[in-house]
Amino acid sequence: MSRSPSSAGPRWLDAGELKTWQWFTLLLNELPHAMGRQLQRDAQLSYLEYYVLAGLSDQADHRMRMCDLAVLVNSEQSRLSHLVGRLEKRGFVRREPDPADGRYMHAILTEAGYSHLREAAPAHVEHVREVVYDALDADELRALRTISEKIVRRLGDRRPLNGE
Q1: What is the pTM of this model?
Q2: Contact status, residue 108 vs residue 98, Cβ threshold 8 Å
Q3: Across the strands, what pairs with 106?
C-alpha cells in the first residue's frame, strides 16, 4: 500500500527544483507586469482591460455574459464589474441585460473599443514576440506550450482556447 504524501511528510524540493521554482515564480510575477507596462504606455490600458477587450473581440457577436467573462479572464465578478465600468466610461464596452435571460448582464464590445483594441494589438503582439518568442527557439516554444498545457490541465482549468 502506498503512503499518502501527508503521512510520508513533505516532499521537499532539491536544490535544482528550488531554483526552477524560483525562476518560474519570478516569471509568473514579472511577465504580467511587463505586458501591463507596455499596454499602459502604448494604449492606456491595463493588462486585464486589454484581456477583457480581446476576450470580447474573440466572440462572434463581441458580447459575453459577465459571469462567463469573469471566468475567461480569471477575475472575481465584483472586480470585473468595476473594470467594465471603467471601460464603459471610456466608451469601449457597454452592458445590457441578456435578452434570453434578464437575470444576466452582457458585456458588449463597442466600435470604439474594437477600434482601440485593433490600434493597441500590433504593439502588444510585437512586445509579446520580443519578450517571449524571440527568446526561445522552436523546440523551446513547443516545450513551453506542452508544459503550460500540462500544468493548466492539472490545475483543473478546461477552458478552450481559440482554435481548439
Answers
A1: 0.84
A2: no
A3: 65, 96
